[in-house]
Amino acid sequence: PSHLVPRRPRSGMSTAVSSMSAAIRGAPVRPRIHRAPRTPAARPLTRARAVEAPVREETSTKQSRKGYRVGVDTLNTFLFREEQRGVVSGDLAIIVNNIAVACKKISNLVAVAPIQNLTGLAGSSNESGDEQKKLDVISNDIFCDAMSDTCRANMIVTEEEDVPLRVEAISGDYIVCFDPIDGSSNIDAAVTTGSIFGIYSSGECEIFEHDSVEEAMEKCVLNARKSGEELVCAGYVMYSSSTVMMLTVGDGVYGFTLDTSTGEYVLSHDDVKIPDPGQRIYSGNNGNVDKWAPEMKAYVRYLQLGGADKAKGPYSYRYIGALVGDFHRTLLYGGIWLYPPDKSAPQGKARLLYEVAPMGFLAEQAGGMAMWGECAEKRVMEVVPENIHQRSPMFVGSSKMVVELQEFLEDRAPVYRNGPRDEL
Fold first, then answer.
1. Distance between CA 177 and CA 183 in Å, rounded?
2. 300 with 358: CB under 8 angstroms?
3. Euclidean distance between CA atoms 250 and 45, whole angstroms
4. CA 90/CA 318 separation, integer angstroms
5. Which end of the chain has fewer CB atoms surrounding its CB within 10 Å, N or C?
6. Is 211 in a helix, a strand, or coil?
7. E strands present in 173-303
8. Could you give the CA distance from residue 46 to residue 146 in angstroms, rounded to a whole number?
9. Are 254 and 269 in contact (CB under 8 A)?
C-alpha cells in the first residue's frame, strides 16, 4: 500500500549477496528434477477455527456444590462469597488475603534463592533450637509485616519468635500463628517447601497500665495457648512445581493454584476429600524407625508385608521430609503419614499450635483423621498446648488407614510394652 514506507536494505546487504553469488557461481549445477505438478490439497473445513481461542474443557469450568467454577473463580471471589454466606467475617477475609500476598513474595524468593544468595544458614537458631536458614528469617519478617498491615489480628505467634507478638488491631481479635518456611532444609536442594498458618479466635488479651512487662507478657502467652477446636481458618501454601494454597474456613477444603501470568490464586481443587482408603502409601522418616516404639516398628513392617491384604503386595513408601509436601500428597492420594515420638524426641517434633493443629483441621475437614497418643486414640484438635512452641506427634491420613493403625496398636502395644523393647 502507498501509505507504507518501504524498508530500506541493511548496510552491506547487497555486497554480501554479490559475494555469495560469486562464491557459488562456479559450483556444479544440480540437474533439475521434473516432478508431476502437485494437486492443491483440499482446504479443511475447520481451518477457520485455527485462529480462534482454544475452547476450555468442560472439566475446567465444572461447578462445585457451592457453585464455584474450577479454573475460573479466584481466591478473592471465594472469600467474598463465603463472607456473603456468613461463613467468614470481613476481618478474616482481609487476613487470609494478606497471607496469600505474603506467600506470593515468599514463593518468588524461594524460586530465585540460589541466584540471590538466599540459601544457607543465617547464623542463628529459633526458640525450638532449629538452625535458621536465611529464608526463615526473611519469610518471618514478610509474614509479620503482612499481619501488622491488616490491623485485624491482635497477636502473632511464629516459629521464629520466642514469644507472641502483640500488634495493633482496629477491628478483629484473631491470633494468627504460622511457620513461615516449613522444610527450609530443602531449600538449598530446590525440594518442596511451604508455609503453614492457623487463625484462632482469641477473645482479648487485656493489658492494663499498672501491669508490669512480665505480667503483660504472661497474659499474652496464656491467651495464645489455643486448642485446634478454636481454629476458624487454617491452611498452607506449597512451593513446588506450582504454588498451591490449600485452605479451610470450617466448611470443606479448597485449593487455589497461583497463576503467575495474572498474579491470582485460581480455584484448582474443589471440596477436597481424602480418598478412603486411597492409594496404598505410607509416609514417615524411615531413618528413625529404630528410635520408634517397638509396636510402631512392627506396624511399619506390617505395611511393608502388605498389611491386612497381603495379596496386593507391600505398601509404597513416600517421604519428602517437609510436612507440607508429605501432607499434600496424603490429602490428594490418601494413605497415612506417621510422625510418632522417638527416643531423641519423646514429645514429637512438629509444633502443635502452628503445624499439627492446622493440618489436623484440614484433615478432618477433608474427611480424614488426625490423631496422637500411644494407640493413636486422641484427636490432635483437642490438645491445649502448655507453651506456644509445644511439640506433638501426629498420625494423619485416610480414616480407614488411621483406624487400622489404632486397631493394630491396641492389639500389639500391651504385648510390646511388657516384652522386649527391641523386638520387631
1. 17
2. no
3. 52
4. 40
5. N
6. coil
7. 174-182, 193-201, 231-239, 243-248, 253-259, 264-269, 281-283
8. 51
9. yes
DSSP H helices, 89-169, are 90-112, 134-150
The full DSSP string for 41-99 is PPPPTTGGGGGSPPPPPGGGG-B-TTS-BTTT-BHHHHHHHHHHTTSS-HHHHHHHHHH
CA 421 vs CA 93, 408, 413: distances in Å: 51, 17, 11
pLDDT given at position 390: 93
Residue 2 per-residue DSSP state:
T
Rounded CA gap, 372 and 393, in Å? 6
CA–CA dist 330, 274 (Å, integer): 7
Cell of 70: 474450577
pLDDT tens digits, 367-406: 999 999 989 999 999 999 988 999 999 999 999 999 999 9
Query: Which residue, among 380, 341, 347, has the nearest Cα to 363 in the 3D structure?
Result: 380
23, three cell numbers: 562464491
Summarize pLDDT for 148-171 with one digit per residue, the tens. Answer: 999 999 889 999 898 888 888 888
pLDDT digit string (tens) for 47-98? Answer: 434 344 444 444 455 666 788 999 999 999 999 999 999 999 999 999 999 9
Backbone dihedral angles phi then psi of residue 383, each to the nearest 5 degrees: -80, 130
381: helix, coil or strand?
A: helix
Q: Rg (Cα) of the chain, in Å, rounded?
A: 29
Q: Provide the residue type at 107 as one letter.
A: S
pLDDT at residue number 126: 63
pTM of the predicted structure, to 2 decimals: 0.81
Write out the three cell numbers for 264: 491470582
